[in-house]
Structure formats: C-alpha cells, structure tokens
C-alpha cells in the first residue's frame, strides 16, 4: 500500500493536481432522490425523497491530449446529504453496463456514449450494489471527450444523468437524477478533494473490497497536491 501511496503522491506533486483526473470541468449540480414507497433499498437516504445541491467535476482520467480517447470521470459531492455539514461523494468512471463491464474502466471518444459506474461495489442498504450514472439522451447531440467539448455541452443547457444501482442478480433501478448546470467560469486550478471513503453514509458506502489500495491512492494524491501547490 505504501508503494501505491508514494506513486500517486509523486504524480500529484508533479502535476500540482490529482494523480488521476488531473484536469476537469467543475459545475453546480442538483441531485434529486425520488425515494421508494416500498422501502426497496432498506436504507433511509435512498428510500427518502430529497433534493440536494451538488458540486460536480467532469474530467479526463489519464489527462491525455483532448483528441485521444480517455477514461472519463464524473465526481459529485452532495451537500448536507444526511443533515447539515454531511457530504456524500460519489465517483463514477466511464464503463459498460453489463455484469462484468461495470467493473472495468473504458476509454471513450464521446462523453455521453455510455454509462459511468463506481467500478467497485457499494453497501447500498441490505445488498452490495454497483452504482452507475446513465446519460439521458435527447437534449444533446454527440459530445466529445475533450474539456472544451464538455464546457460547450454544459453551456448549451442542462446535462442530465439517471443514477441507478444494481446487484449482480438485479436489473438497474433508478435511485436519483442528476442535473448539471453551466461550468464555473473561472479556470480550474484547485479542485474539491473528492474521497468516497471519507464522505459516505452508513447505508451507502464502498465495500471493503480493494479499499486498502484505493484509500492509499486517494491519500497519496491528496498529499501530493498539497505539496505541489505549496
């Protein structure tokens, strides 16, 4: 784990940005949870109707030149998700929707060509489920994966995603909708330090599988960014 921590620390320090997803587009978002009349999720936050302000970052995972396909990230922080001062971070990466494909990152030329998933399972209520963000088609034509293309898409009007969850033996089921507004006008220099292992809810949290490796990577990236900007 120390090797992973040190590697991401050095990479973040060199970039003065996160080790992965070093550059992105940040915008305000609105997260709407419709709730569940039948208590389907067996989790208060998922079963309770609510709306939350969000800070969302759309980014390129490897930081490759904009003309090349890249893994795409969609990171959101829901404000006051479980009471005042409680943040919920959800991090999605471009993937596929199938039982195996939802666990594997996919490089894309088009930002809205397919789903984004958490890759790892979450303890969501009484089951282990992968979470995914599916683009809502119709409002936008093809959107390239470069940062200028993402900014233009946000400027044309709201970009919408349906957030769904599924265990391996379940179909995808909607648990929230996410609406992205216009990109922040200032150039991105510092970003929100998203970390789903710090900002989660008791009934909606990443499982322990791979947690040591991912926690080491998040920690190294966070400390490297601090060192690189000091």
TrEMBL record:
It comes from the Bacteria. GO terms for molecular function: heme binding. InterPro entries: Catalase_sf. This is Phosphodiesterase. It comes from Streptomyces minutiscleroticus. The lineage of its organism: Bacteria, Bacillati, Actinomycetota, Actinomycetes, Kitasatosporales.
């Amino acid at each position: 784990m120390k090797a992973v921590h040190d590697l991401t620390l050095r990479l973040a320090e060199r970039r003065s940005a996160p080790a992965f997803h070093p550059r992105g587009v940040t915008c305000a978002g609105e997260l709407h949870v419709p709730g569940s009349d039948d208590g389907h999720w067996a989790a208060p936050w998922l079963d309770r109707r609510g709306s939350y302000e969000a800070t969302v970052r759309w980014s390129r995972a490897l930081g490759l030149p904009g003309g090349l396909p890249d893994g795409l990230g969609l990171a959101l922080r829901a404000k006051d998700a479980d009471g005042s001062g409680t943040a919920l971070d959800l991090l999605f990466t471009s993937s596929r929707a199938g039982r195996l494909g939802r666990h594997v990152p996919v490089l894309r030329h088009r930002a809205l060509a397919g789903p984004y998933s958490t890759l790892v399972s979450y303890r969501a209520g009484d089951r282990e489920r992968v979470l995914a963000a599916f683009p809502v088609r119709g409002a936008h034509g093809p959107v390239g994966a470069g940062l200028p293309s993402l900014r233009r898409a946000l400027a044309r009007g709201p970009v919408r995603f349906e957030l769904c969850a599924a265990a391996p033996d379940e179909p995808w089921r909607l648990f929230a909708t996410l609406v992205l507004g216009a990109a922040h006008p200032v150039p991105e220099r510092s970003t929100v330090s998203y970390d789903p292992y710090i900002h989660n809810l008791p009934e909606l949290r990443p499982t322990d599988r791979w947690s040591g490796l991912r926690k080491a990577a998040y920690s190294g990236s966070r400390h490297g960014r601090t060192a690189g900007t000091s």
